[in-house]
Automatic annotation (TrEMBL):
Keyword Heme part of the UniProt annotation: no
Coiled coil: none
UniProt keyword annotation of NAD present: yes
SUPFAM superfamilies: Formate/glycerate dehydrogenase catalytic domain-like, NAD(P)-binding Rossmann-fold domains
Signal sequence interval, chain numbering: none
Annotated protein name in UniProt: D-2-hydroxyacid dehydrogenase
One Pfam short name: 2-Hacid_dh_C
Keywords: NAD, Oxidoreductase
Xref: InterPro entries: D-isomer_DH_CS, D-isomer_DH_NAD-bd, NAD(P)-bd_dom_sf
Domain D-isomer specific 2-hydroxyacid dehydrogenase NAD-binding: 108-283
CDD domains: 2-Hacid_dh_1
């Protein structure tokens, strides 16, 4: 029997879907549904599929005939700690690399907006206010610590090095030297790594090991007057402690794209802070995002067909 492919990605255009149909021609069937399809209908269709492309919930896959899930996100937190890892016939692939360039550019934009006080001037524009800030900084010659050196962290480091920034990387295993890192530290050395950084950038997965990793002790280990950026997961940061560090001046500013609760509640004090830039979990968004994602999907569909190793396979 031919495998059935379920595609639930609203960002795919008809051109993307035609490319997928061409790859599947002759060996698989396909159905496209809306991402917001009601759960009961979505699950019924999953129950007739061997491959799912999109953002299905992990519990919807359990007990289904699905053999491959190609996520449209880098994060796969919800698929950890369940019985899917016990299924030897099941494979999960994420979208690593699809959003790396966009997130890296988003980080650079935040960094310049904070150091050059652009965010202040944008607020002044609404008041027709002509007012220079007392201080403008340069990123040139500063030190940045990238916590999480995967595809996104590498793209960030590549750009920072070109800007004359000294780069420090943190990850679980160091292995060979990194082409865009001046120094590398193990995750167990995180406090030491962030101690002298002017910019601390989080690009970590959200899981039990990283839950509230940036707590009072971690922020206290940072250099006074440093900038903090979270483009990873809101669960990694204790927002109350972050707010206190910003209020006290311990941190000079923050660029935040992810939060403990999303959308960020209207009552959050972070909204009112002049030294904070808030974006709505949009760091990975790009006009090229779904072209890259489609390319990944096409490759993994052909790998499924040909029995070859998958790209971005997750170790559950």
């Amino acid at each position: 029997m031919k495998p059935h492919v379920l595609v639930a990605v609203n960002g795919f255009t008809e051109k993307h879907m035609e490319r997928i149909r061409q790859v599947l021609s002759g060996w698989a069937t396909m159905e496209q549904i809306d991402e917001e399809t009601p759960e009961a209908v979505y699950r019924e269709k999953i129950g007739r599929s061997q491959i799912v492309v999109g953002w299905p919930k992990a519990e919807w896959i359990a007990g289904s005939p699905v053999r491959l899930v190609q996520l449209g996100s880098v994060g796969y937190d919800a698929f950890l700690g369940n019985k899917l890892q016990e299924r030897t016939t099941f494979t999960l692939c994420n979208a690593s690399g699809v959003m790396s360039v966009a997130v890296a550019e988003h980080l650079i934009a935040m960094m310049f907006a904070l150091t050059r006080r652009i965010s202040h001037h944008i607020r002044d524009m609404s008041k027709h206010k002509w007012s220079r800030q007392s201080e403008y900084e340069e990123v040139y010659g500063s030190t940045a610590c990238i916590v999480g050196v995967g595809g996104i962290g590498t793209e960030i480091a590549r750009r920072l090095r070109a800007l004359g920034v000294r780069t420090i990387g943190v990850r679980r295993e160091i292995g060979e030297s990194h082409p865009y890192m001046d120094e590398m530290y193990l995750s167990t050395q995180l406090k030491e790594a962030i101690m002298h950084a002017d910019h601390v950038i989080l690009i970590l997965p959200g899981n039990a090991l990283t839950e509230k990793l940036f707590d009072y002790k971690m922020f206290a280990s940072m250099k006074e007057g440093a900038y903090f950026y979270n483009l990873a997961r809101g669960s990694i940061v204790d927002e109350n402690v972050l707010h206190a560090a910003l209020i006290s001046g311990r941190l000079k500013g923050a660029g935040l794209d992810v939060f403990e609760v999303e959308p960020l509640p209207k009552g959050s004090p972070l909204w009112e802070m002049d030294n904070v830039i808030i974006t709505p979990h949009s760091g990975g968004r790009s006009v090229k995002e779904f072209d890259r994602f489609c390319h990944l999907v096409l490759n993994n569909l052909m790998n499924y067909r040909d029995g070859k190793p998958f790209l971005n396979q997750v170790n559950l």
